[in-house]
Structure formats: C-alpha cells, structure tokens
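**User:**
Everyone, produce one record:

**Assistant:**
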Amino acid sequence: MSTVSSSAIYPVRVEASQEHAPSRWLWLVKWLLAVPHYVILFFLGIAFVALTVVALFAILFTGRYPRPLFDFNVGVLRWYWRVQFYANGALATDRYPPFTLADVPDYPARLHVDYPERLSRGQVLVKWWLLAIPHYLVLAVFTGGLVLSGTAGDGTRTSGPVTFGLLPLLVIFVAIALLFTGRYPRGIFDLVLGVNRWILRVVAYAALMTDQYPPFRLALGGDDPERTEDERQLDP
C-alpha cells in the first residue's frame, strides 16, 4: 500500500471515528446540552482572533508564530471540532465533549496542527484575506453563507441569506436517518467529515498557522489521508 511522503503531508489533520450509532433521540437536545460549550467558545473565539492579530505582527517582524499563542489557538480549534462533531456540525457521537484545550486521545474527534518553525513574512499580510478568497467561496457553499439578491414585484431589490448550505443539509439527513433507522449512513458520515476537514484546514490557514495552501480536495472519511505514521500507530 502506498504512503504519503512527509513532504506531501498537509500540516492540518482532522480525524474522527464512529464508535457506534448515536441515539435516535439525543440529537433533538444536543444543541441545548452543548450551550455551555457554545458560551465558552464565544469567549475563546474572541481570544483566538486577538491572539491571531498578535501572531500576525510577530510573524511580520520575526518570521515565527509564538509557540504559546500557537498552542492556545490550536486548542481552540480542537475544542470547536469536538463540539461540532458532537452537536450540529456532525451529530456523530453521544460522548459529551470534554472542557479542555488539550488533545484527548480517546475522544472520537481529534485535530492536530504541525507547528511551523518559520513562516513567510510577506504572505502573512495577504493569505488570510486575498489568497483565501477562493476557499471562502467554497466555504460559503458548505455552510450557507452565500447571499442571493433579486427583484421584488414592485421593482425593489431584495436579498436574503442562503441558510441551508451543504453541511446543514447533510446534518438534517443524518437526523432523519437516526430518527427512522437508528443508523448513521456511512456515506453521509464520510462526506460530513470531508466538509468539516476542508473548513478546519481553511480556518487554520487563515489564522496564519501554516503557509501551505489548503488543497481543493474533499478528503472523505474519518481517517485523514494526510496523517503521519506516528499518528496511525496511536490508533486504539
């Protein structure tokens, strides 16, 4: 079996596994059960943005992302991914997410970002907005962030957000499947993971954590094809 060379491994790796089928009914209240996490993530998100700005200036002048800031921001992404996997981003587990920034090896959703020893000083000024624009357009389709405009009958222009992107639609299909069959369709699981993986890679890139441009590839399934051999050996 062929392996991915170390030079080809993307530094942002998103993993997940299905331990067993989630409950038929718990998804109805997961949004409520996850409220404490949403509150904490709101404040963590503010800190994430603020520290990213600090990191921008640090990279601009030194070419390095301060390691404590990097580890904190990776922890925020890790926390976010666990909550997404549990709640409205996937509905793929009934195990309540832990309240920690640290990696939790036995939790079914994990995220790892390789620390970059050096980063481009020039790219730091443009990659989070200009270079990432093509990916932002893709993410708008995934999450429902596009805005449609049209003309009403009286000639005035109207607009409204597209609230059902690909990911929300997939999660709705999951909820229906769980309710009526008690099973999480494997094909939908793979697609949900692929969409979330794309989103998290772009977020990490825009947050200046890597200079490697995110691939335009929907890497399906819970096993990230880019993970290292050491990470594979840590599998349960």
